[in-house]
């Protein structure tokens, strides 16, 4: 059949009479797999071209292998890498690459060269459909016989003039082509490819707001147009009455609810609280798990809800629309107070969904923000996609200097945390992975990257099993504080171990501008008496995480961070987040990342390194 042959009237009749159903997708969410093109370019002159062919392809092969082995989405799927059908050396070969990339649905492009080529005239390879949204990088070999830098500088200058941002990759030291890619070049290629894959993965997917604004918190005011213009994401809002409706009418998988309930009863430490409680413990747990299944189904859909046999057996009305879900890659639950004044809070829902496991075993974490703080959810989504690791939603609760700790407890912690700590306990929900030192469990050095930690966990069922067992062991679900939560709930209580590298981040809306703050630091394990005191005077049912920033005091962090919430990731991922934000033209308003690690498109240098001016000039990516 010819590619452009029109549909027959029989085909239309077929469409018009077929019944809709839940169409399964290859991954939980529907969307094109992030696809990164590699475009080799070379000098087109006869003789020069032939001299370069083999060595240019050898470079491409190295880049291809590096990215396809090490750039992975949180569910373990590798990013797609495609390579131009032939070396691009002129306008026509560029058009061949362009045609191919359009068919492949490319969203990022890495140009690779070891030689001179007619830089600006090869732009055709980046003029395909949607190419203004592509993330671009260029890697030029540092050597002397055909200096790659000459092409690289000519090309990035051409891109700057077009205001098409491009990341420039060039080794500080001369490279040996017979050796593997240098660590410097590999790190930059991976940083670019991971950030580009994250940008592509979130594009076209949705944020799901369950409920509205929680207790006047501006973060939970979902800014639909900012989501769309900066992140390329849609927004879906579902009133909490939809949740009530599904709970009351039994619209969830009852078999899975039973399985979840048995798992929690058998494995979890449960402390339903003392005195008169709104409902018996077992009922409370069951309600919390129902909410968990329903929020997940609202996010990613559930084929069972459309299945009439399942509906008949379990007593709910099957419905194709209900089964679809919102194709949501991130969500937030309002909870307080309209829901939590009456019903159990979302602590089980958020803590389990944000963890790397549930009753079905190890899986990619979901992104679910407390209090529908969508601006914190964005950060959790970015960091989750960049690392593949679960993220910790936090309240920025109290700044404790060593002096305040000494006054309150008599203990001297100046050696342990000379710059002070932030008490990051969220009001009851935290991913259970933060109850343990995941580096230790995976046998990975804390100096390793977050992505190396994720790979070690992903590749070993033994490590996953141990992580799940330890996280469960160190967590207790505790009956919620009824003053805050009259409808009850089960808070995930644990204490994050110390010495874990942890990056805090936060997105802020300032009018129609989005900014991001990124601060690296590490967790602190306080002496038992000190932690006990802080818990007793704050809330003992909530998850405790104490954190100290690097090269700044906790007070400076407290003073300069925007709102009442931040979120946190295992690992030092500041440089990854800075590259990611540059791709989306979101300026970083505060960070403590060493200058040598900062990697942004060359245009930023033309603006004197001023992130705000570069981002303002370019504007949000999807406007
Ligand atoms: Mn809060």
Describe the structure.
The chain has 623 residues and is of the alpha/beta class. It has 22 helices and 22 strands. The strands form 5 sheets. Strands 13, 14, 15, 18, 19, 20, 21 and 22 form an 8-stranded mixed β-sheet that branches. Strands 2-1-3-4-5 form a 5-stranded parallel β-sheet, sandwiched between helices. Strands 7-6-9-12 form a 4-stranded parallel β-sheet, sandwiched between helices. The protein is globular, with a radius of gyration of 26 Å. The two termini are 38 Å apart. It binds manganese (II) ion. Manganese (II) ion is lined by residues 370-371, 395, 427, 565.
Write the layout of secondary structure elements.
Elements: H1 9-17, E1 35-40, H2 48-70, E2 80-83, H3 91-104, E3 108-113, E4 135-140, H4 148-162, E5 167-169, H5 183-202, E6 206-210, H6 224-231, E7 234-238, H7 240-248, H8 254-267, E8 269-271, H9 281-300, H10 308-314, H11 320-324, E9 328-333, H12 347-354, E10 357-358, E11 361-362, E12 368-370, H13 374-387, E13 391-395, E14 398-400, H14 402-409, E15 421-423, H15 438-442, H16 450-458, H17 461-473, E16 476-479, E17 490-493, E18 501-510, E19 513-523, H18 528-537, E20 546-549, H19 554-560, E21 565-570, H20 574-583, E22 588-591, H21 603-606, H22 611-618
Parallel strand pairs: 1-2, 1-3, 3-4, 4-5, 6-7, 6-9, 8-16, 9-12, 19-22
Antiparallel strand pairs: 10-11, 13-21, 14-15, 15-20, 16-17, 18-19, 18-21, 19-20
Bound molecules: manganese (II) ion.
């Amino acid at each position: 059949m010819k590619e452009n042959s029109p549909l027959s009237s029989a085909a239309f009749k077929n469409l018009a009479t077929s019944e809709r159903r839940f169409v399964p997708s290859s991954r939980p969410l529907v969307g094109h797999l992030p696809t990164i093109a590699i475009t080799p370019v070379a000098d087109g002159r006869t003789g020069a071209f032939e001299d370069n062919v083999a060595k240019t392809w050898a470079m491409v092969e190295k880049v291809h292998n590096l990215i396809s082995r090490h750039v992975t989405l949180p569910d373990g799927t590798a990013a797609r890498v495609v390579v131009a059908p032939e070396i691009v050396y002129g306008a026509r070969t560029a058009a061949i690459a362009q045609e191919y990339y359009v068919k492949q649905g490319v969203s990022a492009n890495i140009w690779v060269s070891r030689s001179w080529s007619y830089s600006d005239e090869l732009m055709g390879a980046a003029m395909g459909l949607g190419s203004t949204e592509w993330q671009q990088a260029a890697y030029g070999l540092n050597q002397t016989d055909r200096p790659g830098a000459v092409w690289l500088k000519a090309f990035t200058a051409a891109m700057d003039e077009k205001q098409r941002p491009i990341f420039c990759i060039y080794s500080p030291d001369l490279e040996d082509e017979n050796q593997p890619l240098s660590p410097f070049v590999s790190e930059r290629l991976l940083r670019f490819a991971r950030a580009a894959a994250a940008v592509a993965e979130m594009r076209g997917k949705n944020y799901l707001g369950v409920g509205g604004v929680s207790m006047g918190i501006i973060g939970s005011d979902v800014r639909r147009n900012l989501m769309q213009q900066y992140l390329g994401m849609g927004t879906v809002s579902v009133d909490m009455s939809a949740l009530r409706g599904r709970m009351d009418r039994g619209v969830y998988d009852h078999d899975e609810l039973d399985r979840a309930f048995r798992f929690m009863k058998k494995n979890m430490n449960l402390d339903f609280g003392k005195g008169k409680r709104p409902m018996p413990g077992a009922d409370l747990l069951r309600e919390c798990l129902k909410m968990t299944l329903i929020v997940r189904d609202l996010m990613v859909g559930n084929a069972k809800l459309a299945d009439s046999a399942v509906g008949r057996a379990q007593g709910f009305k099957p419905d194709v629309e209900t089964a679809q879900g919102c194709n949501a890659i991130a969500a937030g639950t309002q909870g307080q107070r309209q829901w939590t004044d009456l019903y159990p809070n979302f602590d089980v829902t958020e803590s389990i969904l944000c963890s790397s496991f549930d009753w079905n075993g190890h899986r990619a974490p979901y992104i679910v923000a407390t209090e529908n703080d969508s601006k914190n959810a964005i950060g959790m989504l970015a960091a989750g996609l960049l690392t593949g690791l679960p993220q910790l939603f936090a309240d920025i609760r109290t700044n404790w200097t060593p002096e305040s700790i000494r006054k309150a407890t008599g203990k001297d912690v100046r050696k342990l945390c000379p710059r002070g700590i932030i008490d990051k306990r969220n009001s009851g929900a935290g991913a259970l992975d933060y109850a343990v030192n995941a580096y230790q469990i995976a046998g990975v050095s804390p100096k390793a990257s977050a992505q190396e930690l994720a790979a070690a966990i992903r590749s070993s069922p033994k490590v996953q099993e141990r992580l799940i067992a330890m996280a469960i062991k160190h967590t207790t679900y505790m009956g919620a504080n009824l003053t805050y939560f009259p409808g009850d709930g089960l808070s995930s209580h644990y204490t994050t171990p110390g010495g874990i590298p942890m990056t805090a981040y936060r997105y802020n809306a300032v009018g129609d501008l989005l900014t991001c703050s990124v601060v690296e630091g590490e967790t602190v394990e306080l002496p038992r008496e000190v932690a006990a005191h802080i818990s007793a005077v704050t809330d003992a049912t909530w998850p405790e995480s104490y954190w100290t920033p690097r090269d700044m005091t906790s007070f400076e962090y407290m003073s300069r961070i925007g709102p009442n919430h931040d979120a946190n990731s295992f690992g030092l991922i500041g440089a990854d987040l800075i590259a990611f934000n540059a791709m989306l033209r979101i300026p970083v308003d505060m960070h403590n990342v060493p200058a040598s690690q900062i990697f942004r498109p060359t245009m930023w240098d033309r603006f004197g390194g001023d992130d705000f001016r570069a981002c303002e000039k370019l504007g949000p990516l999807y406007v």
